[in-house]
Amino acid sequence: MRSAITRTARNLRTMDPPYKEAMIEANARWGEVDTWKLIEREATPLTISYYLMALDRQLTPDGEIVRAPENQRIHVNLFWRTFWMSAVITGLTLLLGYPIAFLLANLPLRHSNLLMILVLLPFWTSLLVRTTTWIAILQSQGVLNDVMVAIGVIADEARWQMIHNKTGTIVAMTHILLPFMILPLYSVMKTIPPSYMRAARSLGGRPFLCFRRVYFPLTIPGIAAGGILVFILSIGYYITPALVGGQSGRFITNYIAFHMQTSLNWGLAAAIASILLFVVIIFYLIFNRLIGVDKVKLG
Which helix (H) or strand (E) holds 235? Predict the structure, then answer.
């Protein structure tokens, strides 16, 4: 629509009266009432069109909200993909980070300090370097596939495709965000006296039962802190999904960056970003209702 207006304005300089017929001749859409209704509606200071577009909806010339055409429904699927992949990444960081934090909190100081250095080492490396390293590891001719072929796990012609898809995004982001789960867990586990577990064992409890009934409930504030930190960081990432995600592993934040830098559709980018912020606030309120922010410990 904007390009049609520009072309018509350029052609008006060479047009002769009557201008109405000349405009219609330049572009038949100027003779449609719906076109002028659209211009009148979008010329107002406030409009909901961008928010509807961000939710795969659109306004008809009569003001009715309808679903966008099939080939334009991309944003809602991207929102869902961003949320569920962020939840998967949060779960994987918890699964990997919990035993590491447990070791950090219970090993002798000499060994725990060395392990802590290894945990903090990624912070001393550029995010771009860490992401591109995973490209070298996960690609079809990469390190991991070469090892699998060498030991006979897979055939050379059946190499795994682990990059430029959802798998690449999940693996790379789990590695990058793992320290953000370990550190809150460690800060909580370090304050749990070892005598609690010894007392539970002395009362006849089996190791797993003592862990489930005594130790694990005490670490819930650390789990909550690490979970909300990793989840919110995952939602806002766009560099890693852009490099290793391909088409199926990109997040909604990649399209915010696209509209800001490439398409220059800043209104749509702002609408998507504000919806994302609103959803994050809703998650935060639910989290506060179920667990309580006052129970979260970051150190």
Answer: helix 220-236
CB neighbour list of residue 128: distance below 8 Å, 6 or more residues apart: 239, 243
Report whether 255 contacts 78 (CB < 8 A). Answer: yes
**Could you tell me the residue range of the domain that residue 287 belongs to?**
75-295
pLDDT in tens, 46-77: 777 888 888 888 777 677 777 877 777 888 88
User: Do 95 and 226 sit in the same domain of this protein?
Assistant: yes
Exposure b/e, 38-51, CB count within 10 A at least 16 = b: beeeeeeeeeebbb
User: Under a CB-based contact definition with an 8 Å cutoff, are residues 261 and 239 in contact?
Assistant: no
Number of domains composing the chain: 2
* Segments of the chain scoring below 70 in pLDDT: 1-21, 23-24, 26, 31-34, 36-45, 61, 292-299
The one-letter amino acid code at 30 reads: W
Do 12 and 101 reside in the same domain of the chain?
no
Claim: this prediction has a pTM higher than 0.85: no
The residue behind tokens 């800043």 is: 266
Q: Residue 93: exposed, middle, or buried by beta-carbon count in 10 A (0-12, 13-18, 19+)?
A: buried
Q: In the prediction, which pLDDT does 42 show? A: 65
